[in-house]
Amino acid sequence: MTLATRKVSFLPFLLLIFCTINPSNSATDTFVYGGCSQLKFISGSPYEYNVNTILTSLVNSAMFNSYNSFTAPASGSDSQDTVYGLFQCRGDLSNGDCARCVAKAASQLGTLCLESIGGGLQLEGCFVKYDNTTFLGVEDKTVVVRRCGPLISTSSDSLARRDAVLGYLGASDGTYKPFRIGGSGDVQGLAQFVGDLSPSECQDCLSEAIGRLKTDCTAAKWGDMYLAKCYARY
Ligand SMILES: *[C@@H]1O[C@H](CO)[C@@H](O)[C@H](O)[C@H]1NC(C)=O
């Protein structure tokens, strides 16, 4: 069973926890989704040491990068205890905000996914994930969170602007842009990939997210579509 399939069932529980504990955090820290593997590791085991190493490496790296991945032990041998991890900050965050977000996510993961073999957490400003399977560089278009706002008139100008913004976000000009932002009138949109994907995989993931925003949210005033390795919102 993969991590992604478990996320959904955990969601109501997690939302409740984070709304209760952190009612007044800045937008960057706002909880979007999280999930943990049901399998647990043994406290004090080499695996636990490697999980802690990964989370520490991610937090330290986020002071200087908006994306990075790590393997512990670094040799990446096929050991039972190997842990893989990555973080991705939203592309418009400063280094300081990225580091704060990843630190927050890593610490929340430690509590939320206590002794879980794998865990993932998406805050508004950053995504952090670790697991014992190699998810690094693997495209994954599983829908994790889909939220659609109230419907507006299909003849509305806003809808035309929405389609224009999504078209802009989904257009590939051949350059590698993990973060895209665009707006038209009152409609703002943004899209973000996880930096371990190749440019063509990123484009493919984003096309899927944007296509689903249009088909699933139809004429909604706003929409959020989080796939496992990319998201698009307007
Ligand atoms: C991940 O951990 C689980 C539980 O210990 C184990 O069954 C599985 O084989 C591990 N996967 C890898 C790739 O090591």
Count of separate structural domains: 2
* Bound small-molecule species: 2-acetamido-2-deoxy-beta-D-glucopyranose
Let me know the average pLDDT: 87
Helical percentage: 25-40%
Q: What is the CATH architecture descriptor of the largest domain?
A: 2-Layer Sandwich
Family: Belongs to the cysteine-rich repeat secretory protein family. Plasmodesmata-located proteins (PDLD) subfamily.
Pfam families: Stress-antifung
Domain Gnk2-homologous: 29-135, 140-234
Keywords: Cell junction, Cell membrane, Disulfide bond, Host-virus interaction, Membrane, Repeat, Signal, Transmembrane, Transmembrane helix, Transport
Description:
The chain has 234 residues and is of the alpha+beta class. The chain folds into two domains: 3-131, Gnk2 domain, C-X8-C-X2-C motif (Killer Toxin P4, Chain A), CATH 3.30.430; 143-233, 2-Layer Sandwich (Killer Toxin P4, Chain A), CATH 3.30.430.20. The chain has helices at residues 3-21, 46-61, 95-112, 157-170, 199-217; strands spanning 31-36, 67-72, 83-89, 119-123, 126-131, 143-148, 179-184, 187-193, 223-227, 230-233. The strands form two sheets. It has a five-stranded antiparallel beta sheet with strand order 1-4-5-3-2. A five-stranded antiparallel beta sheet has the order 6-9-10-8-7. The chain is elongated and about 60 Å long. Residues 1-25 have low confidence and may be disordered. The structure holds 2-acetamido-2-deoxy-beta-D-glucopyranose (NAG). 2-acetamido-2-deoxy-beta-D-glucopyranose is lined by residues 39, 80, 117, 132-133.
